[in-house]
Amino acid sequence: MSFETMSLLLNWMQLGALLAIVFRLGHTFELIANTQRELRRAIHHFGELRVAELGIDNAFSRPGSAFVSPSRYAPATTESIMDPDDLASTSL
User: Fold this and answer.
1) Rounded Cα–Cα distance for residues 59 and 2 (Å)
2) What does the alpha-carbon distance between residue 60 and residue 65 come to, in Å, rounded to a whole number?
3) What is the per-residue pLDDT across 47-90, written as a single tens digit (0 to 9) for each?
């Protein structure tokens, strides 16, 4: 075989190997995208189940949101509000 024929054959083999790598990478990226999509669905579904399990009706979140406002858990106390009399009694 001549040098030109051997070089052409090697170039075609390199091209074939590169195409195989590109197709394999394409399948890998597709697998990663599908995995991310399924994880998002699972997290969203888990959030909906968690909200339903707690029996929380969150009027502040948008429809379909699985997140709960932290203010729903804050105790409604008036003990932390200081009056002017409280300030006068602390300054001696």
Assistant:
1) 79
2) 10
3) 887 777 776 655 555 555 555 555 555 555 555 555 566 555 55
What does the CA dihedral 7, 11, 13, 19 come to, rounded to 10 degrees? 180
pTM for this model (two decimals) = 0.43
Report the domain count for the chain: 1
- The answer to the question of residue 30 being in a domain is yes
Residue closest to 43 by CA, chosen among 15, 20, 27, 67: 67
Amino acid at 12: W
Provide the domain limits for residue 39. 24-61
Does residue 78 sit within a domain? Answer: no
